[in-house]
Design goal:
The chain has 788 residues and is an alpha+beta fold. The strands form 6 sheets. It has a 5-stranded parallel sheet with strand order 2-1-3-4-5, sandwiched between helices. A 5-stranded antiparallel sheet has the order 7-6-10-9-8, sandwiched between helices. The longest helix is centred in the last third of the chain and has 43 residues. About 2% of the residues have low confidence.
Length: 788
């Protein structure tokens, strides 16, 4: 049974409606005679739908609908009224009404129609709520998996794309989970030499309806290169081929594999050298010592990398009951998916000797949320009773701030243990040979040579680093790598070594602090033993600013303290963030103002055309035609605005000389102060339009204005450009409103675009003139965005 709230200021009509609706025994109807009374009931009782008249005292039906929707209530709402104006119908649907029904006619059929609309609205709303709940549950599950979960369709006509991508795509791939753009952007990220293979295995999987498996290098939008693996299984839904799968970041595994191969080759080379003739060993003594050092370092790095190789994934409830285990883990333990469905506890997968320790660790995570910290090695138990060594990395699962289970990664470390034993055996052989050589050639041991080799290795790493690395003392550079020259636009170290760090920074940072003072303050903190990481605005030799991530640490070189700085240019990331924010802002404006207005104008045109069709030729029809033409011209102005607005932010900012951008209209005298001649701004290429729009604003709105004056003054850390006229000025109440573009507003587009263009590089504009004495616009340029 549906519970309804019926609102009308006519008690007789309420009683009739209640009688008709409840006669079917499908509805229970509460009736009230005013909108405020209906709102009070909605706060105390739950209803399936609301039926309301439009014209009521104190508050009409549209106002009642607005208040219900404003409160966040999505209850189905049907406007049941005797008024049938088109604009009322449009307003009702715009405010969120589900149906509109006009009173009049035979009551039985009218209330039958009303009953059908009620059932339809309630059924639709319940279906929407159920769908949203299912989507939330699916997204929550997908986002808990340590990979990008996706669903991909492949139609028989060759059309394919993504239906769903989990939110992990931002973290792992650096891509938004937008099904429309994801496939193309994902394919672009695959390195060129792997793209054909990606396409080939995908088409093979589609044609054979088999698993789609791919491994290869992928370059994130940030430039970072990762090794990805994707596995998906085909399913048929409604005669449509779908692939459900996951994309994992296996960069650590790939790097570990390459490192193992390289170290194995080094071990083989070292062993061959030891097996050679004694005379050759004497000649290669220094290389043998270096090989011994590399072997010791290799063993340490091998253990770190091998501990992070991903193998299996599992999820379990707090009591240890396994709820999910992937295919690799099933093969590792010899179980099947049916075994898991029947019930499998984590304790049954651990050898008896380690079960107590695993149970204690699992209990701490499930009850207290305390992860074990890194991986732990245990003896695992297969289904057939055999055991093998395993490393486990686990963490608690949180849902709604509550621990609901444990998730972890399982790694078979049999190969790692075997490799460690082989390494130790080889190491023992190397040690024995080394001792023999030391006994024969002690006089050849030259610590100075080893130090020189170590320094050469450091220099090689230092110069090949992908980030700028510099050493500094007392605020001045003392050493730098090749990347530093590239980053600061220099060709020789002499342009950097011995120069102050502040020389490669604007005078002031974006927070208004002087760069030279901040350098000394942070150097003191680092020298006291506090490493720092922060963002900083640097400038290249030509004055171009760029944003960098900087990590500072102190380093002791031969008993003397220096500051080691690692500098990474993040300008591309900052521009991408700014571009994304600007794109969202543009879309919001287009949706909120422009598209809404064009829709309303088109609705008005359709209404006027319908009226014109029903009129005979004459004066009234001509008036309607003129009004239709006016509405079409308004649509054209809206399209002109969107074209200009979309130009903002397309191109990168650049340095521009202000004086060359100032127009000289015939109707106004333009006075330019001397300081403008040498002033340059770092801004959007549309900066030229700023002064055009400001000049047009004087021509159109500056009543009695005869001249324009443009000047500038430096108010550290910023630069202020002043554009003023001698017209009537701007009233106090409109000083901010002139920069906004609101729904229905046909004026002020120029000043709105002025503020939008300047905001690209953090420049602001305000009107500060005195009403009656002319308009005065102050353009405030932040540090790093101007130069003289």
């Amino acid at each position: 049974m549906y519970t309804l709230l019926y609102v009308d200021d006519e008690p007789a009509l309420l009683e009739v409606g209640k009688l008709f609706l409840e006669r079917s025994e499908q509805f229970s109807v509460d009736i009230v005679t005013s909108a405020p009374a209906a709102l009070a009931l909605l706060h105390t009782k739950t209803y399936d739908a609301v039926i309301a008249d439009y014209q009521m005292p104190n508050m009409d039906g549209i106002e009642l609908l607005k208040k219900i929707r404003t409160s966040g209530n999505t209850i189905p709402f049907i406007l049941f009224t005797g008024r049938g104006r088109e604009e009322l119908v449009i307003q009702a649907f715009n405010e969120g009404a589900d149906f509109y029904l006009e009173k009049g006619g035979e009551p039985r059929s009218q209330f039958a129609d009303l009953s059908n609309k009620i059932r339809s609205a309630v059924t639709r709303r319940r279906a929407e709520q159920s769908l949203k709940k299912s989507e939330r549950n699916l997204n929550a599950m997908a986002n808990n998996i340590p990979g990008v979960v996706y669903r991909l369709y492949a139609d028989p006509d060759g059309v394919y794309g993504f239906d769903y991508i989990s939110g992990r795509s931002r973290q792992i791939l650096g891509l938004e989970n937008d099904p429309v753009t994801f496939f193309d952007r994902f394919t672009e990220g695959i390195i060129p030499e792997d793209r054909e293979r990606l396409t080939s295995v995908f088409h093979h999987a589609v044609s054979t309806k088999t698993n789609w498996v791919f491994d290869g290098w992928y370059v994130k939008p940030s430039g970072k290169k990762i090794w990805i693996s994707t596995v998906s299984q085909p399913v048929i839904e409604n005669d449509r081929l779908m692939f459900d799968g996951v994309i994992f970041d296996n960069t650590g595994w790939k790097m570990a594999e390459a490192e193992l191969v390289r170290k194995n080759e080094e071990l083989n080379a070292s062993y061959a050298q030891i097996a050679a003739a004694e005379e050759e060993l004497r000649g290669q003594y220094d290389k043998l010592l270096l090989g011994e050092k590399l072997l010791r370092e290799s063993e340490a790095r091998f253990r770190e990398l091998a501990d992070l190789l991903p193998q299996g994934i599992y999820e379990a409830e707090p009591d240890g009951h396994i709820t999910y285990i992937n295919h690799l883990a099933l093969e590792m333990f010899g179980y099947t998916a049916e075994d898991v469905e029947k019930g499998l506890n984590i304790s049954s997968t651990i050898a008896p000797a380690d079960r107590h320790q695993v149970a204690m660790t699992f209990h701490r995570m499930a009850e207290q949320g305390t992860p074990p910290g890194g991986s732990r090695d245990y003896h695992a138990l297969r289904k057939d009773g055999s055991t093998f060594p395993v490393a486990i990395i686990s963490s608690p699962i949180y849902r709604d701030d509550r621990i609901t289970g444990v998730r972890g990664i399982l790694m078979d470390i049999t190969d790692r243990i075997k490799a460690g034993e082989e390494l130790r055996a080889t190491n023992e052989q190397l040690s024995a040979s080394s001792e023999e050589l030391r006994a024969q050639f002690d006089e050849l041991a030259d610590s100075g040579q080893r130090i020189r080799e170590s320094e050469e290795q450091f220099r090689l790493i230092f110069d090949l680093a992908n980030d700028a690395i510099v050493l500094s003392e007392n605020g001045r550079f003392t050493r730098c790598n090749r990347k530093t020259l590239e980053l600061f636009g220099c060709t020789d170290e002499s342009e950097i070594i011995g120069h102050a760090i502040a020389e490669f920074s604007p005078e002031f940072q974006p927070d208004g602090m002087r760069s030279s003072g901040q350098v000394l303050t942070r150097d003191k903190r680092v020298l006291k033993g506090s490493p720092l990481a922060f963002e900083w605005v640097h400038s290249r030799r030509d004055g171009t600013p760029f944003t960098a991530e900087i990590a500072l640490n102190r380093i002791d070189i031969r008993g003397k303290m220096f500051i080691l700085s690692i500098i990474r240019d993040i300008s591309d990331r900052k521009r991408a963030e700014a571009a994304a924010n600007l794109a969202r802002k543009k879309l919001n404006l287009m949706d909120k103002v422009t598209r809404h207005e064009i829709r309303n104008l088109i609705t008005g045109i359709i209404g006027l055309v319908d009226m014109a069709y029903s009129m005979p030729a004459g004066r009234d029809r001509e008036m309607l035609n003129r009004e239709i033409k006016n509405l079409i011209m308004k649509i054209r102005r809206e399209m002109d605005f969107t074209e200009k607005y979309q130009e903002i932010g397309i191109n990168l900012p650049e340095w521009q000389q202000v004086q060359q951008l100032i127009p000289c209209p015939d109707s106004l005298q333009v006075r330019i102060a001397p300081e403008i001649a040498s002033l340059e701004l770092y801004a959007d290429p549309l900066l030229a339009k700023i002064f055009v729009y400001l000049t047009e604003n004087v021509t159109r709105h500056g009543v009695h204005a005869t001249e324009i004056a443009i000047s500038a003054r430096q108010t550290p850390p910023s630069m202020v450009i002043i554009f003023e006229d001698n017209g009537v000025g701007v009233p106090e109440k409109k000083k901010e409103a002139i920069f906004t573009r609101k729904e229905g507003d046909r004026k002020g587009m120029g000043l709105f675009l002025v503020r939008e263009i300047l905001a690209i590089t953090g420049i602001t504009i305000t009107e500060t003139g005195e009403p009656g004495k002319g308009a005065r616009f102050e353009i405030v340029v932040p540090p790093g965005a101007f130069r003289i």
